């Protein structure tokens, strides 16, 4: 009898722990969330301008805005003269910059030189599709 009781307690606790971690990964679908996939660092200029305009337009409905950088020019993200201004502007607007790990590996980019402010994901295309499944509005450039 004690075994059944303890087993039930363990199962219930496992279920509640699992549900709690799932809730942390959810996106507020009542807000407008955006993801842009780009292959060129200079495209960050119009992308950030767009994020600024959408933030103003959406007001309190503005959610998350992520920009995934991938492709053969991914190495440009390690050039501080190209990236620093974009990083500051992106942070001010609440835009998250994301590097595609697959592209970093394929084009042999030194990952230690990726700016600390950027998140790296294993596969940028997969990440983009996962965000779309969560309801993000998506654009690829």
TrEMBL record:
InterPro entries: DsrEFH-like. Coiled coil: none annotated. SUPFAM superfamilies: DsrEFH-like (SSF75169). Keywords: Signal. The keyword Signal applies. It comes from the Bacteria. Residues 1-23 form the signal peptide. Gene3D superfamilies: DsrEFH-like. This is Sulfur reduction protein DsrE. It comes from Croceibacter atlanticus (strain ATCC BAA-628 / JCM 21780 / CIP 108009 / IAM 15332 / KCTC 12090 / HTCC2559).
